[in-house]
Amino acid sequence: MSQEQFQACIDECLACMKVCNHCYDACLKEGDSHHMADCIRLDRECADMCAFAAGAMSRNSQFAHQICQLCAEICEACGNECKKHDHAHCKECAEACFKCADVCRKMAS
Amino acid sequence: MSQEQFQACIDECLACMKVCNHCYDACLKEGDSHHMADCIRLDRECADMCAFAAGAMSRNSQFAHQICQLCAEICEACGNECKKHDHAHCKECAEACFKCADVCRKMAS
Amino acid sequence: MSQEQFQACIDECLACMKVCNHCYDACLKEGDSHHMADCIRLDRECADMCAFAAGAMSRNSQFAHQICQLCAEICEACGNECKKHDHAHCKECAEACFKCADVCRKMAS
Amino acid sequence: MSQEQFQACIDECLACMKVCNHCYDACLKEGDSHHMADCIRLDRECADMCAFAAGAMSRNSQFAHQICQLCAEICEACGNECKKHDHAHCKECAEACFKCADVCRKMAS
């Protein structure tokens, strides 16, 4: 993996972290937040994983590949939950999650 | 502050982190999770802050005092939210938060 | 503070996190890493604080202002350490730290 | 896995986090910190991974098993580095890492 691809993966994880945390905040404000419980939960899981992965890559961790493999899996799961919902923040989040999952999967391989 | 008090503050923060994350999980399972939105939110804030403070203290950060001051404030806010609710996990969480706020306040001073 | 300034502060913290973690990695590779011990230490403190602040802002934490105030202080301290050293990664890190400290200070006020 | 084993794994990860961060701090104070660069680096990786795993378990993350599998791997690597060194903090750290790796491996399986 080139230095450019490495930097791109860090930035994708940070972008996904921001969008997941925004979706978490927005879900907690929805009138149907009970219906959004799984989305709230996965948004946090995914935001925390993406932040952890970006941190590990930026400090050149020897475990970056395995961490990105796990990050891809969690992004995929969060995207699959978010895409079930019609809120704009959920649709936007699903898109960011799937994009990040792709980039992390390439990083891991 | 003695080494014993320092260790005690780390352990109080970690205990509070565990209880806040447990309360977060339990609130998301309640049928009235919309009513619990502020509690869910503060549980996460407090758990993350306590984990950050415990990490900083355990690596002997020169900023441990300021970090604990902020941690005390967030624990206090989380405790005040949790004590409004009748769920056993909220009562238990309020207690852990107020105890951690006290210990962090002493650490900070 | 406008939404644009808020987003700008998140991005400044994430940029500073990346540069601090890069400086940490580079310092550990220097032949004189003993001489770099304070820089390694502050790079980690600052990277972790910036990641914490960016996470808090992106989830719309009610404590964002106080967190950014602390972040500004830690960025300032890291910048002051880094600027003592002639390594290019330290100079770059000092610049990112001072810039982030400025933006966080405005966010906190 | 029983609730008791789950709690035990959280506590083992938090104990390992504390010991790794203490070893990191102590290594940075050693006169031969250049010689300790890999140990410093792995102490941070392991402390951060253990904190992440403990957080995930305490919030009942659906990814707890995969996270613990990765945590076991990083603990193992940190233990193998620490055991090369004669400092008491490294010996103590190696012991905590191998113990945590065992418990995480059981949790993951």
Automatic annotation (TrEMBL), chains A, B, C, D:
This is Four-helix bundle copper-binding protein. It comes from the Bacteria. InterPro entries: Csp_YhjQ, YHJQ-like. It holds the Pfam family Csp. It comes from Niallia taxi.
